[in-house]
Amino acid sequence: MDKKIKLFLEFLQKDKKLSNNTLQSYKRDISHYESYINEENLQYLKVTKEDIEKYLTNLKDSGRRTSTISRNLASIRSFYQYLVRTKKIKEDPTEGIQSPKVEKRIPNVLTSQEVELLLEQPKAVDLKGIRDKAMLEFAYATGMRVTEIINLNVEDLNLKEGFVTCKNANKQRNIPLGAISINALKDYLKKARPYIIKNENEKSLFVNINGKRLTRQGFWKIVKYYKEQAHIEKDITPHVLRHSFATHLLQNGADLKAIQVMLGHSDISSTQVYMQFQDEGLKNIYKKAHPRA
Predict the structure, then answer these.
(1) What tens-digit pLDDT sequence spans the chain (293 residues)?
(2) Residues 131, 145, 193, 242: which is the catalytic one?
(3) Does residue 61 sit within a domain?
(4) pTM for the complete prediction?
(5) Which residues contact 74 (CB under 8 A, 6 or more apart)?
(6) CATH number reported for the structural domain that contains residue 275 in this entry
(7) Among this protein's residues, is 286 annotated catalytic?
(8) Among the options 28, 65, 225, 286, which is catalytic?
(9) Cβ proximity of 45 and 88 under 8 Å
(10) Number of folded domains in the chain?
(11) Residue numbers of the domain that contains 153
(12) From the centroid of its chain, how far is CA 234?
């Protein structure tokens, strides 16, 4: 990897303080772009707007999704903006290149009944069941991303006050916890986690059967297992629980701005995707509240 690219990635990590997942995404995009530049015998410090547009066309022709192409352009643009700021180049070759329009996909959402069915599956009769019950209840109660959940430490919980502190890069937010989730977490912390961990200094909130921090893959497998146990036809991932959390709050009258804060969206437009599910909930609220409904 070229030295200037390495310096750019270090800048993202140390100065921008991006999360590891975001950093890896930048690294993949820039590395792929670097490989293309080398194959075409181009010099990335001397590329033109047309060269980059040709690269984006190459991505499209190779079957990449519009969202992937848009993300690649954003990564490349950030790289060249960095080179302009550090005076390695005079002009940004990505200037004027329009990002392909990405259609917002409708999130896959569970009904309240499907959520109930899924959360009923873990049986609190053994260590794993107690942990899984606490974890699924927590995921639905907070709407947190998988990475955020697995990165939590026990100290991030405040069960007395009923909230969890989510730390993401250089930001943090407090998310309320419901009574059912709090009770499941108390059971887990008292009856299961102390017997699963091998080292008393382990800080991770959710651990695997080896007593180590749970991985993304481990979380996904657990959700998939209980989805099959519940005989739910829909494809369920941890992110579906996040979508369901937001949708059900909105349908029951929660403020969109409050949901944005709980989800950790920097832009409310990301939260507005859930508005399409609001109609039925609004009708019910209207019928109950309006004197002439």
Answers:
(1) 688 888 988 888 888 777 777 888 899 999 999 999 999 999 888 999 999 999 999 999 988 888 889 999 999 999 999 999 999 999 999 999 988 876 666 567 888 899 999 999 999 899 999 999 999 999 999 988 898 999 999 999 999 999 999 887 667 888 889 899 999 999 999 999 999 999 989 999 999 999 999 999 999 999 999 999 999 988 888 888 888 888 888 777 777 777 777 887 766 565 655 555 555 554 565 566 656 54
(2) 242
(3) yes
(4) 0.61
(5) 99
(6) 1.10.443.10
(7) yes
(8) 286
(9) yes
(10) 2
(11) 112-288
(12) 20
